[in-house]
Design a protein that fits this description.
There is one protein chain. By secondary structure, this protein is of the alpha+beta class. The protein has 4 domains: 34 residues; 186 residues, Penicillin-binding protein 2a (Domain 2), CATH 3.90.1310; 325 residues, Beta-lactamase, CATH 3.40.710.10; 120 residues, Trypsin Inhibitor V, Chain A (2-Layer Sandwich), CATH 3.30.10.20. α3 packs across α4 and α11 runs parallel beside α13. The radius of gyration is 35 Å and the shape is elongated. Keywords: Membrane, Transmembrane, Transmembrane helix.
């Protein structure tokens, strides 16, 4: 009886405890149901957050264009491959949506992605073991081209899908690579790293948008997704001053010289000295921004590599002396060597002795002694320093490119001061020289160099910013500039001039040669070819319309060959053709002068008739489609082309042309006209094409071409001393 009472008592206690717990839990559920909150967190909002998918809508990076509208950089669609491995994603066993057979998938994907099948299989199996929804394949599965995507799609592999993404693409390869620069993905955003891509990154990148919506457990959008979207603002398009034709001329000639002479380094640029616009700029070694493996030189040496310029500096020394009023060109001096005191090492001319010559002759023959005497005896070192600063040799040019460096005025000791006069001790960059030389070419007015022409809204076409020529200062008078131009002309035309090999058939040239010593490991290098050979020239002499700088470092030249031979080959070939192309009137009579062809109206004309007209003018004409009316063309009315240039005429029912032997530029123009997605592999001229001749075209077709340099490239550089 006593035991029974105890049992009833304990049972009552347990009933009370369980009843209390039940009431507490039930009350909690009732509270949650009534308020919809847990710990002040709304369950409805929490659920929405779990269902919500939020994505960034990438802004399209702006394109970069050349002076003539040629596309130099743009965002090209590429693909990232993804493999869905979660079995529950498949709702119908007959139509699997996940990777059903990892081994087979790895075996078929591996050769297309050019990786080992074990690499793909390991990643698939690991993702399955970890119960992940999907897996990617690292760098092997990124930036897949349209052609590769189509190959994979034909395999019909369950669970394999693609995500489209943009990559930065440079359709012309190493064309002006150091100037255009390159951009790469950084935290899923394409960011400029060098060149214009870096300089104009903020304008090019635009502003990303945003989208959010509700989705199910398989990442599929709900029927009523409650979508919110903020549209992206695409980046501005940027137009450069680079001229497509002039830049192409420069690239081709530098490649030829590089193949024959294997120099350690080359730099060249073409500028309009009246405005400061850079029409072409190139370096060797260069690189292809689409393939950044084994890049030898990241720097744009034109703006980033100060060096002792050598005798090109003399044009500024003579300009300073003439402007100062202490110059008598007919005054004679003793050449050979010059010593200002017993404590200062003597200065020597590059040739042992010319005897007594005038200061005008000293410039023509490039006398170091004449330059040193002008600074030490005539104008004085303090006055000369003022002119060096007036020419802005102590500061950057302000060109609109990143990573510009300025040279250094080394002007502490007497030896430094007199050697600066002929290009030693003090260092400057090539672009500093070109900027200063605009004062000589432009009646004393020194122009600021620039490569960015304008930025444009891609949607409206409205110009956002546009640059105009800027006069920085007037370090010398018009009279002095004219005097120096005449002296520079004598360097080319005189029988004793050091620049005779820079003569052009149709144009008078004013210029100054330079042979700069190379300072390495505490000493100057000596020996045949161990110099930086340079030339800064302008044409036509009386009123220069183009200025060009070329330097070649340590070329592999024969024992009887001058170091200026590769420099002269670049200058003459590019300058002569550029002057013709820009329709600059020759100032010398020559029967070989060929004017550029000015195009008539092309669109709307009878194709056969206009083809014959253009052919008669010396142009190469490719007609795409059946005979009829010209619907579109690769050039416009008023454009100026050189004889031999290709014009593409698009007519009715276009089919694929035979592009074997075409240049990269021609292929890209064709792709633009036919709305093809083009990919070029290599440099030179087309040797293979992916779309066969005569194939009907639908637009958006993928065209891949392989280019190789012609076998005649090296042969074409022979005899360049003519």
């Amino acid at each position: 009886m006593k035991k029974n009472k105890r049992t009833h008592f304990m049972s009552s206690i347990l009933i009370i405890v369980f009843s209390g717990a039940f009431l507490l839990i039930a009350g909690r559920f009732l509270y949650i149901q009534a308020t919809g909150e847990i710990s002040n967190i709304s369950l409805e909002k929490w659920a929405e957050k779990q269902r919500e998918a939020s994505y960034t809508l990438d802004a399209k990076r702006g394109n970069i264009y050349g002076r003539n509208g040629m596309t130099l950089a743009y965002d090209r669609p590429a693909y990232r491959i993804q493999a869905i491995v979660r079995k529950s994603y498949t709702s119908d066993p007959d139509e699997p949506r996940h990777v059903k057979n990892p081994k087979k998938t790895a075996e078929e994907l591996a050769p297309v992605l050019d990786v080992d099948k074990s690499y793909i299989l390991r990643r698939l199996q690991k993702a399955i073991e970890e119960d992940r929804f999907q897996v990617e394949f690292g760098s092997a599965g990124k930036e897949i081209s349209q052609q590769t995507k189509e190959k994979i799609e034909k395999l019909n592999l369950p669970g394999i899908r693609f995500k489209e993404e943009a990559i930065r693409y440079y359709p012309n390869g190493q064309f002006a690579a150091h100037t255009i620069g390159y951009a790469k993905e950084n935290n899923k955003t394409i960011t400029g790293v060098n060149g214009i891509e870096k300089e104009m990154n903020e304008k090019l990148k635009g502003k990303d948008g945003h989208i959010s919506y509700e989705q199910d457990q398989y990442n599929d959008k709900l029927l009523n997704p409650d979508q919110v979207m903020e549209k992206p603002q695409d980046g501005s398009d940027v137009y450069l001053t680079l001229d497509q034709k002039v830049q192409t001329l420069l690239e081709d000639v530098m490649t030829q010289v590089n193949n024959q002479y294997s120099p350690e380094q080359m730099t060249a640029a073409v500028m309009d000295p009246k405005t400061g616009e850079v029409l072409a700029m190139s370096n060797r070694p260069s690189y292809n921004p689409n393939k950044l493996e084994d890049v030898e030189n990241w720097f744009n040496n034109m703006i980033s590599s100060p060096y002792e310029p050598g005798s090109t500096m003399k044009m500024f020394t003579w300009a300073a002396a003439i402007e100062e009023g202490d110059y008598n060109g007919n005054e004679q001096f003793k050449s050979g060597s010059y010593k200002i005191s017993d404590r200062v090492r003597r200065v020597s001319d590059w040739k042992k002795d010319w005897g007594s010559i005038t200061f005008d002759q000293g410039f023509t023959r490039s006398s170091n002694v004449a330059a040193a005497r002008l600074v030490w005896e005539k104008m004085g070192t303090d006055a000369y320093l003022n002119y060096l600063k007036a020419f802005d040799f102590d500061e950057k040019t302000g060109i609109d490119l990143p990573n510009e460096r300025k040279g250094k005025l080394v002007y502490n000791y007497p030896r430094d001061k007199i050697t600066t006069a002929f290009g030693q001790a003090t260092t400057i960059t090539p672009i500093q020289q070109m900027k200063a030389a605009t004062a000589i070419a432009n009646n004393g007015k020194m122009m600021k160099p620039y490569v960015i022409s304008k930025s444009v809204d891609p949607e409206t076409g409205d110009v956002i910013n546009e640059k105009t020529p800027e006069v920085v200062s007037e370090p010398i008078s018009e009279k002095t500039a004219d005097h120096v131009l005449n002296l520079m002309g004598s360097v080319i035309s005189s029988e004793h001039g050091t620049g005779q090999e820079y003569k052009l058939p149709n144009y008078s040239v004013a210029g100054k040669t330079g042979t700069a010593q190379i300072y390495e490991n505490g000493n100057y290098l000596y020996g045949h070819g161990n110099y930086i050979y340079s030339f800064l020239g302008m044409a036509p002499k009386e009123d220069p319309k183009l200025m060009m700088y070329v330097s070649v470092k340590k070329p592999d030249i024969e024992g009887n060959e001058s170091g200026s031979a590769p420099v002269a080959f670049i200058f003459k070939n590019v300058m002569q053709k550029a002057l013709h192309y820009l329709d600059i009137e020759p100032d010398k009579n020559d029967a070989n002068h060929v004017k550029p062809v000015k195009l008539p109206k092309l669109t709307g004309q009878n194709a056969s008739s206009i083809k014959q007209t253009l052919t008669d003018k010396g142009l190469t004409v490719s007609m795409i489609g059946s005979d009829g009316t010209v619907q579109a063309a690769s050039a416009d009315k008023g454009d100026k082309l050189l004889k031999g240039d290709r014009v593409i005429l698009l007519t009715n029912k276009p089919v694929m042309a035979d592009v074997i032997g075409w240049s990269k530029r021609d292929v890209l123009q064709l792709a633009d006209l036919l709305d093809l997605k083009a990919e070029t592999i290599g440099t030179g001229y087309v040797t293979k094409q992916s779309i066969k001749e005569g194939t009907s075209l639908q637009g958006k077709d993928y065209l891949s071409v392989e280019l190789k340099p012609p076998e005649s490239v090296e042969e074409s550089t022979n005899g360049h001393e003519d």
